[in-house]
Amino acid sequence: MPGGGIDTCQGDSGGPFVVDVNGLPVLAGLTSTGSECASAQLPGVYTRLTTYLPWIRSLSDVPVAAPGTPTGVVATSSAGKTVVSWTAPAEAGSASTTWTVTAAPGGQTCQTSGAQCSVAGLKLGTEASFTVQGRNGFGAGPASAPSTPALVVSGAAAPGARVATKTIGAWSGLKGSGAVKAKAGAGGTCKVAGAAVVMVKAGLCTVNVSRGKAKAQAVILVG
Asked: What is the residue range of the signal peptide feature (predicted)?
């Protein structure tokens, strides 16, 4: 700088040269050399990083932009889990992008670096839709369009099917080990028959299960 006082100092070689890009700090270069310490009329010398960016990216994952918009968001609910999958955009930004899935209503989330994750804590027997948004070192990208609403259930079976109470216990997330006791809810969609639950007609079958002091509930889509 002509007046001095703002620049690199001798011994700063290799230090970062950071610029502000729309409020985001960006590493633009590295200090090569300086004369004394920010002396007037003796500007520091810097190396521009973009010259070496292809080489750097061949050795390390460096984001070059915020992630694009995910597409094809699909939710599938079964076996006590609601799994959401999607297609990452071509301009994902970097392999280190973190994807966040958000449920509506409720706001429950899950995160992954892959292309699917399981959302927990959803209310059984209700519908939920999901959006996906990516974030990397450049910031957050745009959120996807909401998925088609998915019915949150513990599992699914056809009318006439017999589902073991042990299986329903697993769907519900029932803790412990040993025999599972089951009690079907009102409505006649299903009924308990020994160590199984029989699916009587199409609809939602609610089953309360227990094992010792542990209790849980399963909602099964019959159809």
From this structure: none
| Of the candidates 81, 126, 73, the residue with the CA atom closest to the CA atom of residue 102 | 73
**Domain spanning 71-151 has what CATH number?**
2.60.40.10
Instruction: Parse the chain into domains and list their residue ranges.
Output: 16-59, 71-151, 155-222
Encoded tokens for 143: 């959120």
Rounded Cα–Cα distance for residues 121 and 34 (Å):
57
Confidence tier at 94 by pLDDT (50, 70, 90):
low
HSE toward the beta carbon, residue 132, CA cutoff 13 A: 31
Is it true that 16-59 and 71-151 share their CATH fold? Answer: no
**Cα Rg of the chain (Å, integer):** 28
**Domain covering 16-59, topology:** Thrombin, subunit H (2.40.10)
Nearest of 45, 16, 50, 19 to residue 30 by alpha carbon: 16
Q: How confident is the model over 185-223, as pLDDT tens digits?
A: 999 999 999 999 999 999 999 999 999 999 999 999 999
Selection from 45, 23, 20, 48 nearest residue 34 by Cα: 45
Backbone φ and ψ of 56, nearest 5°: -60, -45
Peptide bond into 159 cis (omega under 30): no
CA atoms within 13 A on the CB side of 205: 33
Query: What's the order of all strands across the beta sheet hosting 214-222?
Result: 155-157, 214-222, 203-211, 181-184
